[in-house]
# Entry
Amino acid sequence: MKKLLAMLLAALMLLACVSAFAEDAEYPEVVEGIDFGGATIYVYDYWTASDDRKAEPTEEEQAQYDYRDWIMETYNCEIHQIAKGDWGSNVTELTNFCTAPDGTLCLYILPPDFVGTPMANDLFATWNDRDLIDLSDEQWNAGDVDFMTVAGNVYGVATGKSEPRQCLYFNKRVLEEAGIDWETIYDMQEEGTWTWDAFEDMLKQINKDTDNDGTLDIYGMTGSNVDMYRIAVFNNGGSFFGFDDEGNLIVTAGSDETMEALAWAKDIWNTYGYQQPEDGSWDYYKDAWKQGFCGFYMYQTYGGFNDNSEMSDMEDDWGCVAFPVGPKGDTYYHIISDNITVIPNVYDDDTVNKLAYIYQLWSATTPGYDDEDAWIGNKYNFTDDRAVDETYAMLRESDHSASDACLYIGSINDVEGQDYLWNLGGSTPAELYEAKLPVWQALCDTFNGK
# Structure
């Protein structure tokens, strides 16, 4: 009740003062010498069907319109953010444009799954060492800047903080019935003692054959085993791909950290996981989790924290923590998957400088509306405070964001899933690694231009 009253009071105060606050907001200092000569600049995303403005905008929407009008008037340009292609074809549009540039000034926003091939073919201009932007500024997502950095050059950016991905949900009722105080999981996460061993101890308590027929009725966990395999690797200090000192993409999946993580995760899954029934669909775990016979659920945050999420009709109360840390790990991670903004490598250096700067202005939070807690939205409606204030908030930070260099050579499913993680149940990590290594090495060689 205390939190609810505080939120209502804050909302009323915001409504009362938002107009005055916005009016007092300061726009960025004008940079002299930037004049686009009335040119049109396109920010090509893959989701905006029309950038027509609303006839009756909210105060915040109107403030953004006013701010963007100021940008365009100040730097003598017209800017449109609109879809060029869809999720899978925007990269093709970029490639076609770079092959036959027509003088259009534009930037492209791509899913991270598709940045590898154009990067390998030198289709992206660099963002680092630009006079007008500072990539260490909090506007830029540090994890994505790191992901898009190869041999010291930054080939793409993302703004703001990442949406957390992999997380570990828990069913409060199931844990309580197993004699587990679920608050202690949050405590261990905060103290840094939420480890593989602690997790397995709880799984042992939860697994139960309630009718003594030799078959488990309550399972320690269910969910996406591939998500668990991947995050176990990163939370144990491992990886699948990385770069050597010369900036070449290399296979790192054979490291001790990675092999240990996959062997452990496979054993955990086989021992405590409710797995796909013979007649079950690939996403069987979504319904199984909501039925309430599993203690933990390995999935991603959008399954529970978002409006109209898959768990919105779940009867049992749930909490959420990061996946636990392995013996060779140093902190909790999720694996980022943010859209990346790139500049086609068809412009002279001065034009790239100006495009980078105009995008910095365009993508910035509207002055006067930079609420640090805006990301919370109505997440408190779905779960307990600690899941939001401790887990979700922590995983948004770049210190807990890991990037998977697999995306330089293909999608997660094509490179790491198919013929590897999807088959882990029937073979050992080492056997699969030896079989997959020649294919992975060839993909790395292609990326490296060999």
Observations:
- Residues 2-24 form the longest helix (23 residues).
- Residues 5-22 have pLDDT under 50 and may be disordered.
- Residues 332 and 400 are 6 Å apart (CA to CA).
- The radius of gyration is 24 Å.
